[in-house]
Structure formats: C-alpha cells, structure tokens
Amino acid sequence: MDIPPGLTVPNTGMVCKLNKSLYGLKQASRQWYEKLTEALNTRGYTHSLHDYSLFYRKRGTSIVFLGVYVDDILLTGTDIDEITELKKFLHHQFKIKDLGRLHYFLELEILYKDDGILISQRKFVLDLLKEFSCDHSTPLSSPLDPNVKLRANEGKALNDPTQYRKLVGKLNFLTNTRLDLAYSVQLLSQYMQDPREPHLRAAFHMLRYLKKDPTLGVFMSSSADFRVSAYCDSDWAACPDSRKSVTGYIVLLGDSPISWKSKKQETISLSSAEVKYRSLRKVVGELVWLQRLFEELTLLSLGPFHVHCDSQAAIHIAKNPVFHERTKHIEVDYHFVRTKLQEGLITLHHIGTTAQLADILTKALTGIKHCTLLDKLAMSILPPT
Question: For the whole model, what pTM was predicted?
Fold first, then answer.
C-alpha cells in the first residue's frame, strides 16, 4: 500500500499496520458486521439463519427484532423496556443516534395510516425525474410501450452508455417498493453492456410513467389476515434474441405484497407447459424460504400456502407423476414442486388469465390493464399534504 498523503516516514521500506477498520476498505463491512454480531450476542441476540441482516431475541412474551443495513438499524418488538435498554447498550458500544419512530430509511418513506402503513420512495422518484430533466414531461400510463419489442443489437449504439447504466441502476433501486417496474427493469438491465438508442428511449418512457404517480408505493395492511397466497406466471420465448422465457411471481400476506420477482429463465423451455412449471418452481422455492423466516418471526401455522397458476398442464405435472410425455425433458430438481405439494406446504389452484396478478411481472401491458392490476395489488399513492 502507498503511504497516505501528508505522512512523512524516515524509511521508504516501511508499511502501515492496520489497527482499526476504516470506511472504504474492502474488509470494513465484514469487520463491522462481526463487531456488531459480537456485541449483540453478549446481550442474547441471535442472527437469523435465513436472513443475515436480521437479529432477534425471544424470552417468554418478550420479542425484539433488529434489521441491519451496514450501520443503519431498525428496532421493533413487543418489549418496549428491552428496546430502550438495547438503545442504551448500542449507544455505549458504538455511539448511535436515535431518530425516533420510523419515517425515513434508506430512501424508503413510511406513512402511518389507521389501517396500515404505506411504503414509498417519493423523494427518490422526484429527484430522479429532476436529475434526468423529466419533471415537466407528459406522464404515461404504463412503464413500457407494449407495441415496441426491444432487441440487443437493434438501433444506433450510444456514444456514452454511462447515462443509460446510471438510469437503469436507479430504476432498479425503485423496484424495492414499485413491483410495477420489476418487469421493465429486468428487461432494460439485459442491455447494460451495449445499450442502444431504442433502449434509452424505453428507459425515458419509464421516467414519464413515474411522472404519473411519483408517490405510488406498497400498502402493508395492519389487519390480522395472515393468509399467504402466491401467483406465478410466465411468457414463453419472450426474448427475441435468445428465445428464453420470462418468469414472474408475487407473494401476498393477506392483501399486502411482500415478495415479487421478474426474471428471465436460465434455459430455453421446449413448451408452454414447461415454462409455466418452471415458474411454479421459482415461487415454491420462495415460499419454502418464507415459511422458515415466518417461523423465526413467530408466525406459525400459516400453511398451506395457496399458489395460483393459469396453466392446467403445469398443475397436472405437479400432481401427476406419470405425466411422462410432458415431463421427460424437465430437470429432476424442478419436481420438488410435487414434493412440497405432497408435504402439504402448498395447494395448487387454477385461475383464469384475466385474474392472474403476476401478469404485470412477465410482459408489457396496456395502460388500462396495467392500472387494473395495480388496484388489485394494494399499490397506493400518498394523500395530498
């Protein structure tokens, strides 16, 4: 390593010995996490085996949780006295700043209502529109134009791809609360290496969509409805370049969305039945993880989880182990859907295409259908101040 500027040493062959981890060093985050874990362990806290950013302590009716992101910490639980003592302990160990009740955390804005909370990224959206000079643009009703099909090598290459990569990176951060952007962002992220002018136009199309409802966010209901339901869908051979399909799923706790994903599949599917079955595989894997996490959060007896799919063939494959003609080319690991069905973790239900909520995560929709699905997914806007 080089000697820091301003430090004079008599011998140029000397090196620096690291006594304390500093910001900017590669090992800093790991050292900080180990230090925090060690401190919390001395007070009886354990980190979750299913999410290492979560710590908890359970003693009788006293339950306290810590959500950690680097050096930002959220505290919640049923024991106010323990939370107060924990704050004092952390302040003694690390000199923390208590910001009171949660209102703003990592660009997430929390609005408390009588029937729940609304999580949005309003300020981040407004700053993004201003940064890319779209704050006075005409708003649009859908994230992407359903009539435009993007391809990898179509259109003129951008002279400076930095703007496109920066914009898509910030749009990706918005998918933390904007599930309506998940499909569009995963599509535009595929062209980061060699972006073209049509890709940039599509990205600015998304900005004009954000202009329509910059305060849109996820509503988390405070009702005691702990029923877990999931919707999965896919678009067969959606990618015009690789002919790979797109999978999308959404998991609801009551009426509140808690997990969602839109992703292009790793392999090419040979039939629409196969691609639907692969989407089942993805959402069931997520439900297995959620079940274990719920157990740590003391939410027991939530199963069986209801999984909704609009493909009768995929449901038959999961239920019928002798469906050879449609399954002999599907990898063995995907048949764990059948195992979880037999164990009682999930139940499979067929729904019509018009009732498929995950449709918003697999393809570009018209403005009317896009808005209809948002209304069903507990996406809300902030009330005027």
Answer: 0.85
